[in-house]
Amino acid sequence: MTILEDGDLHTFSQELPAVFDGVKLAAVATVLYILVRCLNLMSPTAPPEIVYQDTLLSRYLLKSCPMLTKEYIPPLLWGKSGHLQTALYGKMGRVNTPTPHGVRKFLPMLQDGATATFDLFEALGDHSTGDDITMVICPGIGNHSEKNYIRTFVDYSQQQGYRCAVLNHLGALPNMELTSPRMFTCGCTWEFAAMVGYIRRAFPQTLLVVVGFSLGGNIVCKYLGENRSNQERVLCGVSVCQGYSALRAQETFFQWDQCRRLYNFVLANSMKKLILPHRDSLLSLNSSSIADADLSRVSAATSLMQIDDSIMRKFHGYSSLNEYYEKESCVHYIHKITVPLLLVNSLDDPLVHPSLLAVPRSLTEKMPNVMFALTQHGGHMGFFEGAVLLPQRLSWMDKAIVEYADAICHWEKKKRWSLCERSGHGDANVCSLNTEATHSG
């Protein structure tokens, strides 16, 4: 046994604080390293990657839309983390959210007696082109016009001279009872088509800008591609943060990479909170395809795929989950869109696997009307901007969409003037509705 002398004890006691200080420094260094890695602080900021064909329209857009070409700078301390961008968007939507005042419209659906609803917000001033232009907006999964990110975007669009119509997904509004045994699905366009039809009838002079967020992006692209007539009087379309193929997207949702399986669980719980309060309506209404056992399976579900298989696919009579995902995905319709189309995604979106971005990339190779913007940061529907900690009220996404829409509106206005001059009309308003032949750019 080794015996420590008094001198050795004194030396050892002097060394202990130095050892503890070293441990503290190592612990601090480890925590800082983890924070830097988790917050992705070393990732450089950059302009969005823009994929497009070299056309007169694309050149014009790149000159007219600085949001697409200048550096996107998220808040320094947390904005480079796709998870935090996504979580903050999901929790608060936006900062200092305005409260735009609109009128709620109710539309009976002839297909099955469902009641679609949307909110209509009038423009707060004239559009810079002088034209009557309406943004028809489809929100994300289970969302509606009262969500903070929608309210922020609508308020900003109104200020820029756009009338806005926002679809409330069937079954998503609190305290709004179903009038048929059906809720919204990931690709049903019936309610959106009813809203657009109402706008066309109520405002026969208006031109349309079609905007979809997340799941809403899938719906609007599918709507535009389903029928050529759906593109009449449409100036352009914008889709933000969608996954393009529901089948491929759901397969990636079972992966733990980027915590995708955890997001799957969280989204499934959110869907339960939407579906289960409608239990009585789904079971009691005539012609219901839903049984009590289906809703019990929904209660026990831990993934969106289980919920889709238990109930969502049955609303439209799909025999299998694969058939539901195939038929409701815009990937089979988007190539039929001929109006200018902006597709926006973020590379650090934890809900959209990078493999899904092959769809918009390949589209731009075949379709001169499509432009694909891919940001390095932004998460899922975040796109917050700011200096260090606090984000700005408007996001990069809000400003980029309106800027793109403005550029297209002016492009189309110039084309109408040119057509009017060649046809001998002195006033472009004479040709204002004759836009179908000029949309393809």
Automatic annotation (TrEMBL):
Its localization reads: Cell membrane
Q: Which reaction does it catalyse?
A: a triacylglycerol + H2O = a diacylglycerol + a fatty acid + H(+); hexadecanoate ester + H2O = an aliphatic alcohol + hexadecanoate + H(+); 2-(5Z,8Z,11Z,14Z-eicosatetraenoyl)-glycerol + H2O = glycerol + (5Z,8Z,11Z,14Z)-eicosatetraenoate + H(+); Hydrolyzes glycerol monoesters of long-chain fatty acids
Q: Which SUPFAM superfamilies match?
A: alpha/beta-Hydrolases
Membrane protein topology class: Single-pass type II membrane protein
Top EC class of this enzyme: hydrolase
The cross-references to Gene3D superfamilies, in alphabetical order and at most eight, read: alpha/beta hydrolase
AB hydrolase-1 domain sequence ranges: 134-387
Function per UniProt: Progesterone-dependent acylglycerol lipase that catalyzes hydrolysis of endocannabinoid arachidonoylglycerol (AG) from cell membrane. Acts as a progesterone receptor: progesterone-binding activates the acylglycerol lipase activity, mediating degradation of 1-arachidonoylglycerol (1AG) and 2-arachidonoylglycerol (2AG) to glycerol and arachidonic acid (AA). Also displays an ester hydrolase activity against acetyl ester, butanoate ester and hexadecanoate ester.
Can you name this protein?
Answer: Monoacylglycerol lipase ABHD2
Q: Which organism is it from?
A: Salarias fasciatus (Jewelled blenny)
